[in-house]
Structure formats: structure tokens, C-alpha cells
Structure prediction request, 97 residues.
Amino acid sequence: MAQLDAFQMPGLVLEMYPEDHSPPHFHIIKDNWNIRIKFNLSIIKREIVWDSKYPESLKECPLTGSETKLLLVLMKKHCSALNKQWKALHPSRSIAR
Prediction:
């Protein structure tokens, strides 16, 4: 596990795992949940594209409205850094956008 280098958000743990599956994503962890944020897809769609690592039954994004807005701003601002970290942690894979 590696801490996300591009940015952090108060009260949340942000990590990007080496040799993880595509598409490029990072994990947000809090309390009893872990969600995957597909950052390039989120930037393109201008909305958070996510799924749940655990619990699998999580159907709604657990981020608050203000966390969602901040996350979109930070991902857009730090897009290059996110892709750079993904590439460094996944040297055998190309970046899917």
C-alpha cells in the first residue's frame, strides 16, 4: 500500500496500491468502508466514478457532498500527479484514460 502522493483529504485515508487492477484508481478508506475512485473516468465524466471494495453491499457513495466536490477539484488539479504515481506503481501497464 502506498499513500496517495498528489493530495490528501482530512479525515480520510487515500491510498494507491502497487500492481493493482485497471482502470487507474485510488482507494479512500474510512471507518468500515473502502471505495475505489476511478480518477481519469471521474475527471472525464465530471462526477465521482467509484465502486466498493468493502463492504460489497455498499450501494451509495459514502462521501459527503462537500467531500465529493473537493475530491473532483483535487483530482482535476492533480491529474498529472495521479497518473504519474499510477505509472510508477504499475510499470508493466499503460495508463487507460
